[in-house]
User: Which sequence fits this backbone?
């Protein structure tokens, strides 16, 4: 569905190249997590997909066509901070993407209410964002992302600003949303546990600067429980991933202790 | 495990209304200007004024507050039907033009970098012109009609409006603009659905700042040359050595400014609901 072929990128203001020769493929309705150290260019991958940065070398394909030839609205981006508009109610925030497409008020209201229902926030429709908790705001932000009707969701560390318990709950919630209606989801995170718990497949950005990306299937089916992460094969997998991410400053035994 | 969750309390509780904690209340109480104390200090100053003026006993130089109030009452017809309307007329024309001009420049400077490079330094340096010194020039050029006075008012109020609104328009987060772009928003939509809303509180703050300035500007201009208005009235009363009558328009101007600013403050509280800490 989406393919990166030998994509390299460098920011003008940086001396060093950000990543080199990234190649990967994402299937339809696949839930993929991309992990990498902070500053390794995870978000830049999204910026390339949604057209905020121009392609420098290599090629990106969407359903077999070059990215430059497709309307970038095939994807919807959910930022790390909810970026809700503080002057708009929950409902009006969710309506936003359709409003920009000039869809009639009645229609967008109906669809926004429907979505708020699915994210479990219908009763908060007429409340300003400042009255919502961080977790609720992220759910509103997710509903807004869904509202675009895009075929692919790009979630950029959507839970990283939340407290630990809320993050765990929202992870379950996201999987649940995915199971209710499977979509293509790319989920960027620096949290290996999060990646393993959520995704069918994990892409790891290796090296610094990033020299390539490797893919690991998560040997779990949905639904999952937290204890799944403690299975020996998952613990091993996590160890591998951490090694690939370059947490090599620690000895291996320390890493294992840290995991268990 | 994966049953559909509908309880919004299940995770992410509703945020406690901000600022109701005990410490916050205490902090507020200490930080809030104590209006009771201000009234006492104000009364002390007025009493001192009354005392000094009574001892001095030269009402043509320093009338007592009571004399000022009595004189205001005696002159109420002239003040309220002739001079106040004249000043308010100039103020509103000047402020109106200032708002239109200030908004226009602020928007152009925020949207087009060329405009910003060309005009921003000029707008800022326009503020260094001493208005009181340049006002006589306007009278010289535009005569004793209303336009010389309107011009002084514009010069006083244009700057805070243009600069504040410009800052507001430029204060939009880059992430917000990018999010809008990923939704396929046009530049026009970004302006109306994003920039305008961020700039709105700045605009209202600028108006609150501009109202007293516009009254001062109008009064100065009337003082320099005019046939009506509170500034003119005050000047005429000086030549008649009528101290209390010189004070009357000053009191009136302050009252008008306070009323106008609090009206805008009320509008602000009603419109800008999203930034208020409760």
Assistant:
């Amino acid at each position: 569905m989406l393919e990166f072929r030998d994509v390299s990128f460098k920011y003008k203001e940086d001396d060093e190249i950000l990543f080199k020769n990234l190649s990967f493929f994402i299937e339809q309705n696949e839930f993929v997590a991309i992990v990498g150290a902070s500053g390794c260019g995870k978000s830049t991958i999204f910026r390339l997909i949604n057209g905020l940065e121009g392609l420098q070398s290599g090629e990106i394909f969407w359903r077999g066509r070059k990215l430059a030839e497709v309307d970038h609205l095939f994807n919807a981006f959910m930022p790390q901070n909810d970026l809700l508009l503080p002057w708009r109610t929950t409902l009006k925030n969710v309506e936003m993407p359709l409003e920009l497409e000039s869809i009639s008020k009645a229609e967008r209201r109906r669809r926004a209410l429907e979505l708020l229902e699915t994210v479990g926030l219908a009763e908060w429709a007429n409340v300003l964002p400042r009255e919502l908790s961080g977790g609720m705001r992220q759910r509103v932000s997710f509903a807004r992302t869904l509202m675009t009707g895009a075929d692919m969701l790009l979630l950029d560390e959507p839970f990283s600003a939340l407290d630990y318990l809320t993050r765990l709950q929202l992870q379950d919630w996201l999987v649940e949303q995915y199971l209710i209606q499977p979509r293509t989801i790319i989920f960027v995170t620096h949290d290996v546990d999060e990646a393993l718990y959520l995704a069918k497949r994990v892409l790891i950005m290796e090296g610094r600067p990033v020299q390539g990306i490797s893919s690991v299937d998560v040997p779990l089916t949905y639904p999952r429980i937290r204890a799944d992460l403690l299975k020996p094969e998952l613990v091993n997998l996590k160890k591998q991933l951490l090694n690939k991410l370059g947490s090599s400053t620690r000895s291996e035994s320390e890493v294992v202790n840290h995991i268990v | 495990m994966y049953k559909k969750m509908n309880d919004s309390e299940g995770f992410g509780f509703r945020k406690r209304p901000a600022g109701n904690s005990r410490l916050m209340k205490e902090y507020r109480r200490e930080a809030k200007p104590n209006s009771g104390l201000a009234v006492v200090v104000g009364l002390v100053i007025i009493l001192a004024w009354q005392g000094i003026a009574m001892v001095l006993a030269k009402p043509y130089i320093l009338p007592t507050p009571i004399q000022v109030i009595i004189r205001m009452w005696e002159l109420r017809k002239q003040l309220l039907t002739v001079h106040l309307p004249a000043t308010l007329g100039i103020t509103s024309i000047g402020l109106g033009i200032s708002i239109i001009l200030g908004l226009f420049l602020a928007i152009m400077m925020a949207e087009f970098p060329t405009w910003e490079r060309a005009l921003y330094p000029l707008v800022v340096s326009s503020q260094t012109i001493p208005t009181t010194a340049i006002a006589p020039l306007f009278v010289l050029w535009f005569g004793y009609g209303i336009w010389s006075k309107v011009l002084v008012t514009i010069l006083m109020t244009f700057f805070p409006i243009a600069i504040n609104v410009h800052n507001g328009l430029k204060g939009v987060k880059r992430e917000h603009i990018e999010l809008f772009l990923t939704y396929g928003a046009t530049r026009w939509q970004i302006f109306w659905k994003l920039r305008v809303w961020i700039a709105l509180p700045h605009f209202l703050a600028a108006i609150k700042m501009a109202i007293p300035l516009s009254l001062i500007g109008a009064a100065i201009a009337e003082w320099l040359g005019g046939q009506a208005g509170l500034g003119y009235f005050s000047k005429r009363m000086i030549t008649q050595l009528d101290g209390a009558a010189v004070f009357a328009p000053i009191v009136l101007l302050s009252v008008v400014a306070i009323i106008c600013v609090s009206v805008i403050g009320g509008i602000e509280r009603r419109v800008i609901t999203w930034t208020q800490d409760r």
Observations:
- Residues 2-259 of chain A form a domain with the Rossmann fold fold (CATH 3.40.50.300).
- Strands of chain A lie at 2-9, 19-26, 31-35, 57-62, 65-66, 75-78, 152-156, 184-189, 201-206, 212-217.
- Chain A touches chain B through 46 residues (CB under 8 Å).
